[in-house]
Amino acid sequence: MRNDIIRTVPRLLRQHENELTKQWMLACPGTTTNTTNTNTSKTGWSPHDILKYWCPSSTSLTVKQSSSRFFMYEEHSNSSSHNNTADKGSQLIINQHSPNDLADILCDTSRTDYHYWTSPISEVAPSLLKERLQGYESLHSISSNSNANSISNSSSKVNSTAQHDNDKHSPLPPPTLDPRGPSLWMGSSGSATQAHYDVADNIIVQLHGHKRVRLYPPSAACALHVFPDAHPKARKSQVDFDDPDVMGSFPFFADVVGEDDPFLDVVLQPGDSLRIPAFWFHHLENGRRSKGGGHGDGDGHGDGELMERHDGPSVSLNLFALSAPMQTAQNIFRDGRAPFPSLLNLQHQRDIMTSEDRFNVASVALRMLGWALLEGIDIGSGGGSDSGSGVKECPGKVIQRVLLDSRYAPLGPAAPFTVSVPASGRGRNRRDRSRNRRDSDDHTHDGGSSSSSNSNINSSSIGKMTVPEMEMLVETCVSRLLPQFESLRAAHNPCETQGISHDGGADGVVLLVACHLLELWAVELVGASAVGSVWERALSQEST
């Protein structure tokens, strides 16, 4: 197996498999058995231990509080904005607490609200790095180069005998770590971080308490109904995991509810470490399990009972590292920007054309770009096939499903960043509505080339350019991007080599990056609030 793809595979190391974290835990006896004890020790890892002994008492900590247990991941944010949780009926409150007060709040299991705090350790407890966390710089290298199984958890879809044979493969070079260093993450019992993906590789080390992690491959983006990239909550799932509205707003979520999903469902205990590759979705829950059950309650793996027994706060260390896929994606976005320079900011060209004309021009341009890109990257059954049938979807169906139906439709017709979905089309029949619309438009989305798909355009010129000129610009832009997409795909193809049965590594990441590019182009042409509407118009070009 090539070394450059090892880091794209999730990896769980229990405490006894990781000598570094094992040493960290041995320095604080009793840390694995008592999650609520407020007796402090300079060698412990509880909130009281860390915040009392290692944080100056005068430090003011920015803490999130909510009546909803689901927090939207937003690392080290001091934003005072409200409604930052998945629960639309709750408000996020930003508070300032002293270290001692925060420790008391986190350890008070009688509270009915939830609290969440994170900060780079160097900013709040720099001496902790030097005296207690020696060797943290090697966490990513240990996870990549160790001889342990890729994932040894029984609930993951991984061949348990698949191992990295370091006798045959030289160790990976050290990764480029986040210059801020590792961060502390603390959450009260029951708090959770909504499913999301990061563009950097991540190592989680559980220091105190317990954390349940559900891991999904990049190909699950459609099923998780990710917020649009133009939305403030980009990269995060819209689904309430405790009460998923599968029959209404989130029909595709049913695709990741079953005995084979998620890819990994595990409870981290003190000393355990988990590597989460860039673009992999992870849903995190601290302390006790949700009393409502919800999706994937862990039954059958023994983890549910474990969570119930440990009703206390969670403390973990996170260390991000620069990922090769992130660098490739950044290059794609850089090289793919402004394919039609003369059409930029169409929404401001009121003196040149009417609002309707500007919208039509943008929709034609996007249709040409979207078809050429998706045909070029050749999304197959791993990310662009219809319901896993293995039959390749045409570009129109892919865009309808992964962009409009999955991301924009659940937001509702009255909200910003939405598609203009008729009221009669919402609710439990959305999936049928979408499928019927796509079937009726098969003559429109017949897999033809990007040029032939514009054959019914009445005008010989679009804006200030002719159609042939636009087609030439599309070809130039997409041909510049395709080698980079192939590089992205090649870095996420470890399936056959390691016995991994999931299909979301390669096509899943490619499709996520492609969706971001489709939205980026729309934002450039019509602005963020009209992305869904202009793409809906683009898909209906020939049927109108």
Describe this structure in words.
The protein is an alpha+beta fold and 544 residues long. The protein contains 15 helices and 15 strands. It has helices spanning 19-26, 47-53, 99-107, 121-124, 126-131, 139-145, 303-309, 324-336, 355-377, 395-408, 430-440, 467-490, 495-498, 506-526, 531-539; strands spanning 11-13, 61-66, 70-71, 92-97, 114-120, 183-187, 192-197, 201-208, 211-216, 264-268, 273-276, 281-286, 314-321, 461-462, 465-466. It has an 8-stranded antiparallel β-sheet. A 5-stranded mixed β-sheet has the order 3-7-12-9-10, covered by helices on one side. A two-stranded antiparallel ribbon has the order 14-15. Strand 14 and strand 15 (465-466) form a beta hairpin. The termini are far apart. Mean pLDDT is 77; it is low at 1-5, 29-38, 76-88, 146-168, 290-302, 381-390, 420-460 and 495-504.
